[in-house]
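Lab manual, section 2.4: Encoding a predicted structure.

Procedure: take the sequence of the chain (659 residues), apply the prediction step described in section 2.3, and record the output as structure tokens. A sample record is shown.
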Amino acid sequence: MLFRDFADALEKIELTDSRLEMADIFAELLQKASKDEIKPIIYLSLGLVLPTHYGIELGLGLKLMFEALSFSTGYSKNKIEKMFIQEGDIGKVAQNLTAKKLQASLFAKELSCSDVYFRLLNIAKLGGKGSQSLKIKQIAELLNSSSDLEAKFISRFCVGNMRLGIREPTIIDALAKIKILKILNIAALACERTIIPLESVQILSSDFLELKIKVKTKQEISFLEKKYVELISFNNEKSPKLLVSKIEEVQENNFIITFEDFKKRIRYPIERAFNLCNDLGKVAEFSLFDWEKIENFKIEIFSPVRPALAERLSSPQEIIEKLGPCAADSKYDGFRLQIHKNQDKVELYSRKLERVTDAFPEISAAVRELKQNRIIFEGEAVGYDKKQKKFLPFQITIKRKRKYDIEKMLKTIPLHLFAFDLIYLDGVDYTSVSFEQRRKDLEKVLKNNQKIFLSDLKMVSDAAQLQAFFESCIQKGLEGIIAKDLSAPYVAGAREFAWIKLKKSYGKLADTIDCVIVGYYLGKGSRAEFNFGGLLVAVQNSQTGFLETIAKIGSGFSEKEMQYLQSILSKLKINSKPQNLISNLKPDFWVEPKIVISVSADEISLSPVHTCGFENNKGFALRFPRMVSIREDKSLSDITTTEEIKELYALQSRKTATS
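Recorded output:
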């Protein structure tokens, strides 16, 4: 595939606000690609050299990009920087400069998608003395061979901001659509070992909830009702097993068959495979060219599983009503780590699935001593004050996440690792095993271990027991508890009621809100010296993919935090509203939505100002919001969703009604 065709598709995606349209455009693009081009297309679209757990990034800042553009176009760095300040998008600057560059490219050639990807991958792998100069030179050479539109997306990729609305869920939608198109060319039905050829097939309806088809066959098919059936296409593509909810004979040998959860059943195995490996390039390749590997996807060590997430409820009583007798696990406020061990090799991955092994040598050493050869488990690493025998706050613990002075910080802020879940052990995938069994086997793994601790967990059968354990956790300086369904599997990458968190209250809210900063305001009065006066923050609508504002925050900042926020946000300034943001407000400066903060508030209210869940001229807003902490361990994919805000608002209303 030529890179210009890829760039044309990205341009179309950038110009639409509809997630369905984005999925359609991307599906059309993927259908034109060869097997070897799938991974490059997926990674480039997501702005990745490789998935985060590989630890390979391009690492090119704006100033180095200015230099590369200067080399390739002949314009001065000063002029390029001024254009960027005016435009706010390095991609558009590159596009404009390339269209009217001062120096001709003598050896320009048409680029393929694979050419661009592998050249960027090789540039990312450059290291050592002189590597920055070499990166600039090689990117300039790549830009020399680019058209103006190609230069736009190459430049955006280099600085790590593709500015596209497309993310993993949309790409999974596209993959599901392609699979659906293949299997809807139906030739036969298969149930266990019985294959029923069809003389004709008419698609009556096809949506997320059901598939309804009219078929003609001389064979008896009434026995298929309430059974799981595979659709077989003329090119021998097979669907996942679909439940036949109803069969009607409308005339002789003509039947209407209704299948439940059609698109959901097609999409689910693709999403599951992604959640078990965090590599959408690999999953896309399997989905398009080797579907059986999607159906039978296996966990691999050193390919991290996307973490399970907890739902919220506002009281122990509601939790017990939902789960019945359950396990109450302590909720520590530290680094959530996923630990992988294969013989003597150990890797640690953060909540964002970044490789962080080098930052925590004492944890790696303790894991290496485990008797088990191959294991994946999760734990929380928390700073601990040995003298006072108490846990350190997250703002102190976060200082351990660094690339330099690791040995010094190891002594200053020692960590305790509390293991809380088992994902894989010596060839057995534990994600489908009940929590009760996972915990028992984790306890066996860590029996008598003096360096890795089990999380403090208590079995509870009623609300009073849960309340008592919750209060004891708060007294120890912990965040709260997570109630866990004893029979539930490990639900990778999803927020389910298998886990329910209960945290100390913030006003009427049952939890803090994780928001992304989308803009900031200049300071006035005593804050004028900091060039910082407050933040505009947003949550994400998971249905549309768009960010929606929920609060303007003017309190909760220390002087040090104001200085820090101003320094990092000034580097993320852009001239116009982020493309994937819906906002009625305009801050003094817009910024790229990258920095996540935890926010507390007295309550959630309805407001005509903010766009979160906007309906009937009102959206949700945080009343008296305050910043609690900067969450360097979280990314855009971890922020609170509009749907969660709606749930929190409902919880708040119930809490008010019963108080």
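Check your result against the sample. The chain has four domains: 3-165, 171-265, 309-503, 513-658.
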